[in-house]
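Example complex used in Figure S2.
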Amino acid sequence: MTAVQHLKRTLIGLSLLGLAAHASAQVQVQVSDAWVRATVPGQPSSGAFMTVTADSDSKLLRVASPVAKDVQIHEMSMKDDVMRMGPVDSITLPAGTPVKLDPDGYHVMLMGLTGQIKEGDQVPLTLTVENAKGERQTVEVKAAARGLDGMAPGKMH
Amino acid sequence: MSTLFTRRKVLTGMGLLGLGLLAGCDNSPKLNFKYGKDLSDKIMGRTFKLKNTQGETVTLSSYRGLMPVVFFGFTQCPAVCPTTLARAAQAKKLMGRDGEIMQVIFITLDPERDTPEILDRYVKAFDPSFEALYGTPEEIAVAAKEFGIFYEKVPAGDTYTLSHTATSFVFDTRGNLRLGLSASLNAKECAEDLLTVMEVC
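Predicted assembly (358 residues):
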């Protein structure tokens, strides 16, 4: 099941639970291509990547996952072939604009992993998104683990 | 027409005459790379002394006869390190049999957290031929300085991450530094320049 499908399911689930009225104030958040990099045994951290699109101006505030004790949002930048890395408070999600969290920019750091992440694992992620009014909502995503080289299973290795 | 191209043509001619192997060695101080940076006139990276994951002390001369490709990083690096190692593995494949002399050497910039066991598993997940080197924080600092590597710890919650230079350094089989490959290049571009390094033996 892709992240989008899962998200749709979650949203449908929420409506069925009678929370639909609340949904009017909610941001529609679409998450696609969510993946996590597999680890070798003993490796304490990894990165998660995805594309997030919100239908109104909002922010990705934080991400949580049961596979890691500490989850942070980091930004990577390159200048003169020096890679700089560091935590950011949030990621701005402009209305209707897909924002990529990929190895060339923003990414989610899964730190203090509870165990090895193996290729093909489905890693649950909970995204907290805040709309322009400061209202928060969570979005559940399942990210498939790819090999350490970032290649999806079945693709060229 | 560049001098290299002329030389290549001459070499091809020689090769056809069966004189290739000996005459093909090129001791010229400069190389023309299509994508990477020529580092032939740079005196750097010669005297590092670190340990491999078996605990053996290694220096540049341990890799004589191979084409060392040296990259500094850390295993908790989410992006540029795995991308660079995956690119090196792919370039090696693209080079076919010539790729056999390419020796990727991953030097940890995070010796406090990267144990030899994790390092070994990590690099071998990309290609079984890859090697990782480690040392004390002081030894790593000396090696990094040798290569002009910038690195610094960046606080991240209770822990830290690292910023660091992302260049791969390539030596020829005699241990002369030749080429710097930036992180922005793809595997095919790297493979082309690596084959140019091989022309100097």
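Chain B has a mean pLDDT of 89. Chain B touches chain A at residues 75-80, 82-83, 85-86, 89, 113, 115, 117-118, 121-122, 125-126, 150, 154, 156-159, 161-167, 182-184 (CB under 8 Å).
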